[in-house]
Design a protein that fits this description.
This protein is an alpha/beta fold and 367 residues long. 37% of the residues lie in helices and 19% in strands. The protein is built from 15 helices and eleven strands. The strands form two sheets. A six-stranded mixed beta sheet has the order 3-2-1-4-5-6, sandwiched between helices. Helix 1 links the parallel strand 1 and strand 2.
Amino acid sequence: MTGSAGIYIAVIGAGGVGRHFLTQCSRLLPKFPSAALVLVSRSNRSLRVPTFSHALSLSTWEQDLAASGDPAISPSEAVSYLSSAPGKCILVDNTSNQDIAASYPEFLKKGISVVTPNKKAFSSDLKLWQSIFESAYPTYPQGGLVYHESSVGAGLPIISTLRDLVDTGDEVQKIEGVFSGTMSFLFNNFAPVEGKGGKWSDEVAKAKKAGYTEPDPRDDLNGVDVARKLVILARIVGLQIESTSAFPVQSLIPKELESCGSGDEFMEKLPAHDDEMAKVKSEAEKKGKVVRFVGSIDVASRKVEVGLQDFDKGHPIAGLKGSDNIISFYTKRYGQNPLIVQGAGAGGEVTAMGVTADLIKVIQRIS
């Protein structure tokens, strides 16, 4: 693309999800000749076009970035750079960086749209949430658009489904589900519907080896990731949740292991606590049920919870496979038969798909 009045795309975060996203963009952007990639930045370096007369190559961006001598771009530098573009701009933030998240209002006030899977922007301080949407269109008529589908459920249409329900006037009464691919994988193997299952520490080790957990599994087992997703959904339905500390979040980290110096030390000591989780599984089995790690939002009572819960073996949550997520929306229109969204809720490629889909929506809206 050359000339002015185009759409200029800046990408911060080019590893993991970012790499998958840019691969998908290499197939997508040729369909939108007015759109151009002009900036790619990662933790230690960046690459940008000095003027906006041409685009970065989507086929060689990785080699070009590796060869660049420019340091990573700061949020304020990115705002300044994109503000000088002769057309409309989109920031794609593929990081989980709090500082970048905190800068979204500045981008939006300059008319720069934001597409991101960054949960921290929408689940941390309530004032940041309010500032983001007060700076965005349509509340701020000159503001950019905000899309963050992949901040909950990777590529699953969870946020868009909930917003459609709310925007069309349905009354959302309850949201319940398995919001973590890691927790889904763990409990589907630890406490399968057909019985048996492995030892808890063995299943955690398998999940870690398969790449389903963070390098330190405690970052998954503490329940905070699920809590962040519930904060986002609760705010969309109108609950003014201050933060993840505003409601009970059950951690599956034994208290004795909270102070472990590393993930490896935690894994080494976890087998000594297998009996605790075996008891939880056994108590559910005695009732003819299975235990799962779920999150729920009761809108009427303003009650949000994250933790273990027993389910009948015929319940959709009990029957999940692999690392699938499942989210049930109980509303006035849908009655006792909830609207259910189910599928892969983790992984770089499906998360990137959600980001890419949001990018398409923004391009179509601002073109």
